[in-house]
Automatic annotation (TrEMBL):
This is DNA-3-methyladenine glycosylase I. Zn(2+) binds at residues 17, 30, 190, 194. InterPro entries: Adenine_glyco (IPR005019), DNA-3mA_glycosylase (IPR052891), DNA_glycosylase (IPR011257). It comes from the Bacteria. GO terms for molecular function: DNA-3-methyladenine glycosylase activity; metal ion binding. Pfam families: Adenine_glyco. It comes from Bauldia litoralis. SUPFAM superfamilies: DNA-glycosylase. Keywords: Metal-binding, Zinc. The lineage of its organism: Bacteria, Pseudomonadati, Pseudomonadota, Alphaproteobacteria, Hyphomicrobiales. One of its GO terms (biological process) is base-excision repair. Coiled coil: none annotated.
Length: 211
């Protein structure tokens, strides 16, 4: 049962962010992945793409199809996806294991090509993304459920969105980019009282920011 602070207590007695205890799939993702800092370019590219596919859908839908997406998009190796052509688009439109949305499929291929360009210019996708990490003093002193719900995007996610759009990326709006930043640990949005919050913060403090 959820409390007023946006927490839920699981059968294991642990307090989680309310969404993280709503299904077994979410619990695994919440406990072991969400908010943990990532510096691997392939994982970052995958998360950007999947957040784009999630637009208008639930994240649970995408999460349950993630392995299918990985198979369909060459493990999200953006150098391989960048070489996809019209035949691949048609193949993907016929793949019932993923979200068959032409615009999002074509966006993923486009973004792979833009990722190749970005890495050639900036060194890595990770180095680029982590530049948009907010300064600690700009973050809420106490992150409760109401604060989090009122924060679907931030100045930093807007800046990241603008920077990517300027480079030709698509399906990277500021709300989508904030969800991406939450997922890959650029911010720690586990609410106060969640058993993961302190562990994630320790990981973030120990994390070597890419440069």
């Amino acid at each position: 049962m959820a409390d007023t602070e946006g927490l839920t207590v699981g059968e294991d007695g642990k307090k989680r962010c309310v969404w993280g205890g709503s299904t077994p799939d979410y619990a695994v993702y919440h406990d072991g992945e969400w908010g943990r800092p990532v510096n691997d370019d392939t994982r970052l590219f995958e998360k950007i793409c999947l957040e784009g596919f999630q637009s208008g859908l639930s994240w649970l839908t995408i999460l349950r199809k993630r392995e299918n997406f990985r198979k369909a998009f060459a493990g999200f190796d953006f150098r391989k996806v960048a070489r996809f052509g019209d035949k691949d688009v048609e193949r993907l439109l016929g793949d019932a294991g993923i979200v068959r949305h032409r615009g999002k499929i074509e966006s993923t291929i486009n973004n792979a090509r833009r990722a190749v360009e970005l890495v050639a210019e900036e060194g890595s996708l990770a180095a680029f993304v982590w530049r948009f990490e907010p300064a600690p003093e700009t973050r809420p002193k106490r992150l409760d459920w109401e604060t989090l719900r009122a924060m679907p995007k931030t100045a930093e996610s807007l800046a990241l969105s603008k920077a990517l759009k300027k480079r030709g990326w698509s399906f990277v709006g500021p709300t989508t980019m904030y969800a991406f930043m939450q997922g890959v640990g650029v911010v720690n949005d586990h609410v106060e009282g969640c058993f993961c919050r302190a562990a994630v913060e320790r990981q973030r403090k120990a994390f070597k920011r890419p440069s």
